[in-house]
Specification:
Length: 202
């Protein structure tokens, strides 16, 4: 299995921002995302914003986080309120799409039992709001872990937790982009609360 150094992983992350370019345009849409970035936009455009010229911090430890204030404005199609389903990230022209993904609020849950070393099943009192494909983060959860399955109060992760996860630990679940509120209205000011990219180790 190929493994890469943190230096290479950081370079991969930083190269993506360079390829997209300065002052990227971010748009929120209703419904499911298109089949790929080359496909036409789908769903009503609910919010649009131009990001800062340098919109991502330098990658560190294979993880790259947003930089500055990512502010969008609700569009007429949002009316008095509509739920965001996905985002698309464009070059500064606002039409060349380079990335897309899901948008959800952050869902913090507290583990109800110990997950032993090298286990990948976390247990909670309830798993309301957690769905397959969401990102997972927290003490003991490896970087890049996603939800593989949800069964009752148990969540199965894509990665094993080498050191295990203790009971009483807060694990945060979310989509590819995390916002405080997925409901957007016309002319509403919208702020992205969390966005990170993790370069794979292969």
């Amino acid at each position: 299995m190929i493994q890469q150094s943190v230096t290479v992983r950081n370079a991969k992350n930083d190269a993506e921002e360079t390829a997209i370019g300065a002052s990227a345009v971010l748009k929120y849409f209703a419904g499911a995302q298109p089949a790929n970035t080359a496909a036409a936009d789908s769903g009503a455009a609910l919010a649009v914003g131009t990001l800062p010229a340098d919109w991502m911090a330098a990658s560190s430890g294979g993880v790259k986080a947003k930089a500055g204030n990512w502010a969008l404005t609700g569009q007429a199609a949002a009316g008095t309120g509509a739920n965001v389903g996905h985002y698309r990230l464009y070059a500064s022209d606002g039409t060349t799409c380079h990335e897309q993904g899901t948008v959800t609020p952050a869902i913090p849950l507290v583990t109800s039992a110990l997950t032993a070393a090298f286990g990948n099943i976390l247990n909670f009192a309830a798993t309301t709001g957690v769905v397959v494909g969401m990102n997972a983060s927290g003490t003991g959860v490896p970087s890049g872990a996603k939800v593989l399955a949800v069964a009752g109060t148990a969540v199965t992760l894509s990665h094993t937790c080498e050191a295990g996860v203790a009971a009483g630990v807060t694990i945060t679940f979310g989509g590819d982009m995390t916002v405080d509120n997925v409901n957007v209205a016309n002319n509403q000011a919208v702020s992205v609360s969390s966005y990170t990219k993790t370069a794979s180790n292969a």
